[in-house]
Design brief:
Layout (H helix, E strand, L loop, with lengths): L5 H7 L17 E4 L2 E4 L5 E2 L2 E2 L4 E2 L2 E2 L1 H23 L5 E12 L7 H16 L6 E7 L8 E9 L1
Parallel strand pairs: 5-6, 7-8
Antiparallel strand pairs: 1-2, 2-9, 3-4, 7-9
Helix pairs in contact: 2-3
Amino acid sequence: MTAQGPEQRLSELGLAVPEVAAPLAAYVPAVSTGSLVFTAGQLPLRSGELIATGTVGQGVTPDEATMCAQQCVLNAIAALKAEIGDLTRVRRVVKVVVFVASAPDFTGQPQVANGASELLAQVFGDAGRHARSAVGVAVLPLGAPVEVELVVEVG
């Protein structure tokens, strides 16, 4: 019996690796150095469109933002796969940074970020457990409510 790979786990969740989101400016979706891959910040784009816009706690609910964080991770996984070719090469998700466009009184950034963290654990198992920062910000590109970036170790 063979161990399940990340793409099989995604499929079981009813998800798939999307096309890599086109950069919005002068950068690339992911860069490798040594055994690490750094993704650019990924927005909650699906088929080239943001799945939500606005500020969490003021027009965007925490549940909507959590779904956005999941979509951001899918897009980061797409950038990662394009960079390394095969997701089974992932040895460890090292660090996740989740930016949340937040209303001044919104303090639930960690719960929004769980959308990203929990999906990474489901897809990569123990290798998906990571250090994380969840940061509230005033605004994100294109009015997105969430942006996620990853640092991943590959072998």
